[in-house]
Design brief:
Structural class: alpha/beta
Radius of gyration: 17 Å
Order of helices and strands: EHHEHEEEHHEHHHE
Number of strands: 7
Helix content: 25-40%
Largest sheet: 5 strands, parallel
Number of helices: 8
Distance between the termini: 19 Å
Strand order of the largest sheet: 6-3-1-2-7
């Protein structure tokens, strides 16, 4: 199975009718921040799963923090039955984002100063945004480099094959190839997802030497969630 986690770039934001969240579409309000179901087949992760004829699970969500990405990835591992057949593709995001516990759920906050938070957390959020200075950003970068390396080691010890990339690396590559962001925003279109998929596919096949193993499956299933220093691609 190909498992994908990350932020809006991995989730395929704006690939369908400019929708960022599934909930932006009146048909899928119950899906909340999850990837839009109709966008998933156009995402880079799905394309890799299709090329390898493997089942696919989408765990990426728009505006995700690295903390959410790691938390949900570990939750998925706990429920996995055959870890040796998993391949994780994780698109890591900007360092300043955080994952705040609120009641029985979590909030994803960014340093934009425009996030919607519960009234009881508005003052905390304003104070937190002010503290997101360049010095704090560098501190978090070092912290997350360490945590990313630890996650990679954790996956290796559990014999879970994986490939990490940072969304900055993803964006720089696509811009260098001449791809434009859609709607004058932050996200790329279907053609760019195809280009990044083609860039990653040989790395998935050759780095872990799993081409023969992965192509054994005759039927591919698509699942969407309904209920060392990191220096880029690894």
């Amino acid at each position: 199975m190909i498992y994908v986690n990350g932020d809006s770039h991995s989730a395929g934001a704006e690939l369908v009718n400019d929708y960022c969240f599934a909930a932006d579409d009146p048909q899928y309000t119950a899906y909340g921040r999850r990837a839009h179901p109709e966008a998933i087949p156009h995402t880079l992760g799905y394309k890799i799963a299709k090329a390898l004829n493997q089942p696919f699970f989408m765990d990426a969500e728009r505006a995700s923090s690295n903390a959410r990405i790691m938390r949900t990835t570990r939750n998925f591992i706990k429920q996995a039955q055959n870890k040796s057949k998993l391949f994780f593709i994780i698109g890591l995001t900007t360092w300043e984002r955080e994952d705040w516990k609120f009641r029985e759920d979590y909030l994803q906050v960014t340093a934009s100063g425009t996030d919607s938070v519960p009234e009881s957390m508005e003052e905390k959020y304003r104070e937190w945004v002010i503290k997101q200075t360049p010095v704090e950003h560098r501190r978090k970068e070092q912290l997350w480099n360490k945590k990313i390396a630890e996650l990679s080691l954790e996956l290796t010890e559990q014999k879970i094959k994986h490939l990490f990339f940072h969304t900055d690396e993803y964006s720089k590559y696509l811009i260098a190839q001449g791809y434009q962001k859609v709607n004058s925003g932050h996200h790329f279109g279907i053609d760019a997802h195809t280009a990044w998929y083609k860039y990653l596919l040989p790395k998935v096949q050759s780095q872990y030497q799993i081409k023969t193993e992965l192509t054994k499956s005759k039927k591919r299933t698509i699942l969407n969630k309904v209920k060392q220093e990191f220096k880029g691609l690894r």
